[in-house]
What we know:
By secondary structure, the protein is mostly helical. It is 72% helix and 0% strand. The chain has one domain (16-303): Alpha/alpha barrel (Mitochondrial carrier fold), CATH 1.50.40.
Amino acid sequence: MAFIFGAEYFEVGPKGISQAQTMAAYLGGSAFQTVMDNPVTAYRQLVQQYAKDIAGNTVAPEVALAEANKSFKANPLGACLSGVMPRLIGVGFKRIPKFGILLGLTFLTGDENPGVAAAFGASIGSAPFINPIRMIEKQQRAYFRQTGATKPIMDILKESAAKKFAPLFRGTVPLMGHSLASALLGLVGQPKLQRYVKEQVGATGYVGNFGTNLIASAVVSPIYVGVTNPLSRLEVIMQTSAVDKKSISLGAAVKEFMNDGKKFGLRGVFRGQGIGIFKAVISLSLFHEGRLFLLDYFKESNKANKGDGLA
């Protein structure tokens, strides 16, 4: 990966943009998406987290939904902003490793766009960097029902430090699966589908870039959420338990998930599915819209600067 620190990383390639600018476009799109979709992200976690009441008993999906609504109504601003700071920080800590590996492998293999191998490498290699941020994000709103406020990041870090920061890596295994599905469908599949939609539908002149982006995201999102929703549930179960208490193992989380299905059927298994699809459509569309906007900006800037890709 030494090329990242070399002059060629900043040189404009045949596509009119440098590797550094491509990375900046991915990070910029991610930051834009993170801020805009945070309220939906927070709401979905509460719906899934409130599958159990304060006493630890599994409740019906409609009860969990009512509890989530109650928490949001009690402090709508706090709920919408909960976890946004670690998520924004995570754009650096999470996305630089993930996008760096993704784009780096794409560059090394000579592929024009990220493929399956690059997505697989990025999902596995970036997991140790991503998991602590996701853990902190979920812990911030884990006790929103009891306190009505987000938990300070420093309190979470102090509690984790007392256990040598091991709690920050709870849920790493389901995260790897989640991250792989995200990379394959969101970073590889969606752009390919958007190009196809643009060729088939965009050629009519009735649908622009944003429209084709939205159509592609709407097609990919149900598949993505269907694959990742169970993994997301396992993450929530494992990452919202008290940091200073005994952790919930993957086996125990799977057992809790299966019991929910036995008790409430598919409604229990797919808690938050509808919200997840809505979130995925919004998130994917915002990310790629921000990414494409920055890519076009950098390309035009390079033309104006006669190919200088150092900007």
